[in-house]
Amino acid sequence: xxxxxxxxxxxxxxxxxxxxxxxxxxxxxxxxxxxxxxxxxxxxxxxxxxxxxxxxxxxxxxxxxxxxxxxxxxxxxxxxxxxxxxxxxxxxxxxxxxxxxxxxxxxxxxxxxxxxxxxxxxxxxxxxxxxxxxxxxxxxxxxxxxxxxxxxxxxxxxxxxxxxxxxxxxxxxxxxxxxxxxxxxxxxxxxxxxxxxxxxxxxxxxxxxxxxxxxxxxxxxxxxxxxxxxxxxxxxxxxxxxxxxxxxxxxxxxxxxxxxxxxxxxxxxxxxxxxxxxxxxxxxxxxxxxxxxxxxxxxxxxxxxxxxxxxxxxxxxxxxxxxxxxxxxxxxxxxxxxxx
Length: 340
Description:
This protein has 340 residues and is α/β, with parallel strands linked by helices. It has 13 helices and 12 strands. It has helices at residues 8-15, 19-26, 36-49, 55-62, 78-93, 107-119, 134-142, 166-179, 195-210, 228-240, 252-264, 282-286, 298-314, and strands at residues 67-72, 97-102, 124-127, 147-150, 161-164, 185-190, 216-220, 246-249, 274-278, 292-295, 324-327, 330-332. It has a 6-stranded parallel sheet, covered by helices on one side. It has a 6-stranded mixed sheet with strand order 7-6-8-9-10-12, with helices on both faces. Helix 1 (8-15) packs across helix 2 and helix 5 packs across helix 13 (298-314). The chain is elongated.
């Protein structure tokens, strides 16, 4: 049989004090209003019986939950989960709990999650918004909720964000491949209007244009990338462009799909096709040959996200702390992007 949960009413009754007295003591508002003797009596009893306040009820009462939500497209992705782990530690050090969830880039699911978190009085939102979510983000900002966009942003909204300099980072990656001898480089990306994907494509376009090379771009729907359909699309792309001697993948999960296709076709890297990815993954170091990439500064991203969020949480006017942060990526050169 489950043990009965102790309430404030039970504590008040057992100690023969009022519910208000117990509430004041539990919420650290008793100093100067209630005697030290009663405060000690209640605190000792609470410790003895192991009473834990109902956080939801407490949040509804105070309007503060000490919870920050981290909403990303896929929390199982190594990039997002690594940042979540670092932020979780930083949040705890500052008296907050971090909860995280996946939106799957689905506007309806993201909208439902935000409403649920609003109902639970979540204090702050860190979000990688899906396409077409500008109005919802504007509504959150207009309502005064502490809010930071991450990985992508909306140019028309003046909302705090932390991103990588995606265009320049992609350009430098392509420059490395081109100067290493690759001349027909395909760019595999998502069919997306999100700022980070647009910027990465612009970086590729800029590089091939500058060096007078042909443009080979493949766009894959986000919902297809985890399915066999994505592999078939990449295979068709290779069949349609047999002269490709290089591939740059706009995300690490696209790169992993591409590597499977190349392996199944017995295409050797880098002898037949050079390979690079935007964003690192532990698989890339274990692969033979090791895969070159543009690595995102995970620790710096987590630190900057929490720095901005904590500033907003400490200031009732969150709009007064709007910060746009663009961090540099790190070029990690391994064996896959050098011609032998």
